[in-house]
Design goal:
The complex is a heterodimer of chains A (about 325) and B (about 300). By secondary structure, chain A is of the alpha/beta class. Chain A contains 12 helices and 14 strands. In chain A, helix 3 packs across helix 4, helix 4 packs across helix 5 and helix 9 crosses helix 10. Classes of the chains: A alpha/beta (about 325), B mainly alpha (about 300). Chain B: Keywords: Membrane, Transmembrane, Transmembrane helix.
């Protein structure tokens, strides 16, 4: 999808990108970095709008330096800032943008109706954009990036300014862009946590340099922690304790779910593989207890970056100490 | 994060899919030239408020009517009195109505470009196949066309009226053609000046004020200086002073080459030699406006 090779961009006073080499596969890719890390500069270069100082980049197999217009026909772009005129309706605006992408008039109208429905705008799409909420405006911005059915979209901070519910809806929508629409996504954010839930792959840049590029499963697979919660029964008034003891007897270490919702009733254990799930199931069934939940508790990407192995070990010892 | 897919519908005859889901687009993509044309027609329609709110139709439509009504009245008078000629020459109309034309360009130039700048819509254009030059050309051509419609419509009314009044066909056609060339130049010149000013003033109000100021102050100053020169019998200076305002520039060009009588004080217009300087000045200003717009949009890019 995207490949850059020692891509650099230097302005008279700052180096925005410093020999960045990264490959992006189809799917949802997160581009993480603090403000000024070079995210927007990278998107500008990938759209063929700003020449790189050195190095080269390809988008969809097309060289950004020479095939800018062809790239821009096949990708969509959702800017970070407001970009909507308040005095026209979402429908009129998106139709116009579809035509700017080269869609014939009839196709532009059909695609606009489809796309606005997919991003979740219904009757309000005939009203002027000036009266929309931030969430609705974000949806219009997303619709104009998708209306020409691109192969790849660049979404620059799409969750900016949204409340938690709006954030979740937007993230779900971004996920659907790939799974349902078959369009690859490059989404930027300065929040690692939200990309963890959405992306297949995360690229972290800082000061224009590549910090890390790996799939989100890599980030979180190193330790798969299982959280389990069981019911109590007459035979075992404290089901949690019974399970913990039974697991200990079989040589499985557990921790209390301190700090989690329902702490005291939640046990955490490290899954070694498939057999751990079977073991937990059998142990609970043997005790005649009900399994309320068993879920993977993935570490957040931020924890992976925090380089806190020591700290985590310390916590584990403490937890074991409480348990025995 | 897992996404809930509804289970695949059973493969029976009665199975119906109501939500057709996402459909991809395999149709034609018409590219840059089409996008530029679309932007041109959208901007041209926008210059008369079409495709915009009712409120934004009022002023341009009103100005259009104000331009045409006097022409219609003149035609009516000419027909009724069986005059041998129209009350005014084709080339005079734009100069008489220059206030209305200035008001139009001052209101519509900011509408055309300041909105895109103020609401930061420009990056959405440039993340699509069109380039800076396409955007500038489409916007420039659209406003110049809108102004041509505004200034040529009264001429058309006069011409049709003149033919109905059975005035001399060859004479009228020549005058009409000269008038059209004159208003075409005027449209290009005024649109260029208006767009350059509007493109550096993202606030629409300032844009309107700035365009009116540039057009009227320059005309006022030049006319005053010409009147002083005329009063001192320094008639040789009058054509040279006229180079410094858009209205007098057009007046000079049509006096020298399009058979008009100068509206400068004392009726002193440029001769052929000075006229060439006038034409070069007009063309230079149009080219400069285009160049400045290109430079401006290279910067605001994305």
């Amino acid at each position: 999808m995207i490949a850059t090779e020692s891509l650099s961009k230097r302005f008279p006073r700052v180096t925005a990108l410093d020999r960045l080499s990264v490959d992006v596969e189809p799917g949802v890719t997160g581009l993480v970095g603090a403000n000024g890390a070079g995210k927007s500069t990278l998107i500008k270069i990938l759209l063929g709008l700003s020449p790189a100082t050195e190095g080269r980049a390809e988008v969809l197999g097309l060289d950004v330096a020479t095939k800018g217009a062809a790239i821009r026909e096949r990708v969509g772009y959702m800017p970070e800032h407001d970009c909507l005129p308040p005095d026209v309706s979402a429908t009129e605006f998106v139709v116009h943008m579809a035509r700017m992408s080269g869609l014939p008039p009839t196709a532009a109208r059909e695609r606009t109706a489809d796309t606005l429905r997919h991003v979740g705008l219904y009757e309000e799409r005939y009203r002027p954009i000036g009266g929309y909420s931030t969430g609705m405006k974000q949806r219009v911005k997303l619709a104009q990036a998708l209306v020409h059915d691109p192969q790849l979209v660049f979404l620059d901070e799409p969750t900016n300014g949204l409340d938690p519910v709006g954030r979740d809806e937007m993230l779900g929508l971004i996920r659907r862009i790939h799974t349902d629409f078959g369009i690859s996504v490059l989404v930027t954010s300065h929040l690692l946590g939200e990309l963890e839930r959405t992306c297949d792959h995360v690229v972290v840049i800082d000061g224009g340099k590549l910090l890390r590029s790996s799939s989100t499963t890599d980030f979180t697979q190193t330790t798969t922690t299982l959280a389990i919660e069981v019911t109590d029964s007459d035979e075992h008034p404290d089901g949690t304790r019974a399970v913990r003891d039974a697991l200990h007897a079989r040589g499985v270490d557990t921790q209390d779910g301190t700090g989690l919702p329902g702490a005291g009733h939640v046990l955490l254990l490290t899954a070694q593989g498939e057999e751990t799930y079977d073991l937990v199931r059998d142990v609970i069934a043997d005790l005649g207890l009900g399994l309320v939940r068993m879920e993977q508790r993935r570490h957040h990407i931020s924890e992976v970056f925090r380089d806190n192995d020591e700290q985590r070990d310390g916590q584990r010892k403490e937890a074991v100490g409480h348990g025995s | 994060m897992a996404v809930e897919h509804s289970a695949a519908p059973p493969a029976g005859d009665r199975a119906r899919i109501h939500d057709i889901g996402y459909r991809s687009y395999d149709g034609p993509r018409l590219g840059r030239a089409y996008a530029r044309r679309s932007l041109y027609s959208q901007s041209l329609r926008g210059a008369y408020g079409l495709g915009r709110s009712v409120k934004s139709k009022v002023l341009p439509m009103l100005l259009f009517v104000v331009m045409c009504v006097p022409a219609a009245i003149m035609v009516a008078v000419a027909v009724a009195t069986k005059a041998k000629d129209l009350p005014i020459a084709y080339t005079d109309n734009a100069l008489i109505m220059q206030g209305v034309i200035s008001l139009y360009v001052a209101s519509q130039a900011p509408q055309s470009v300041s909105r895109d700048l103020r609401f930061k819509t420009v990056p959405l254009y440039f993340s699509r196949p069109i380039e800076t030059a396409d955007y500038v050309r489409a916007k420039y051509a659209a406003l110049a066309s809108a102004m041509f419609i505004l200034t040529a419509a009264p001429l058309l009314v006069l011409y049709v009226g003149a033919l109905l009044a059975k005035l001399d066909f060859a004479d009228q056609t020549k005058g009409f053609a000269q008038g059209l060339v004159s208003v075409a130049l005027l449209s290009l010149l005024f649109a260029g000046i208006g767009l350059v000013i509007a493109a550096v003033t993202p606030r629409r109000g300032f844009g309107i004020a700035a365009v009116i100021a540039v057009l009227t102050i320059s005309y006022g100053a030049v006319s005053t200086l010409q009147a002083i020169a005329d009063a001192r019998n320094n008639t040789g200076a009058i054509p040279w002073i006229g180079l410094f305002s858009p209205v007098t520039l057009i007046d000079g060009v049509q006096t020298a080459f399009l058979g008009a009588t100068s509206s400068a004080p004392g009726g002193v217009g440029p001769g052929t030699g000075e006229g060439i300087v006038y034409v070069l000045a007009v063309l230079g200003l149009i080219a400069a406006a285009y160049g400045l717009l290109l430079r401006r949009y290279k910067k605001v890019g994305l």
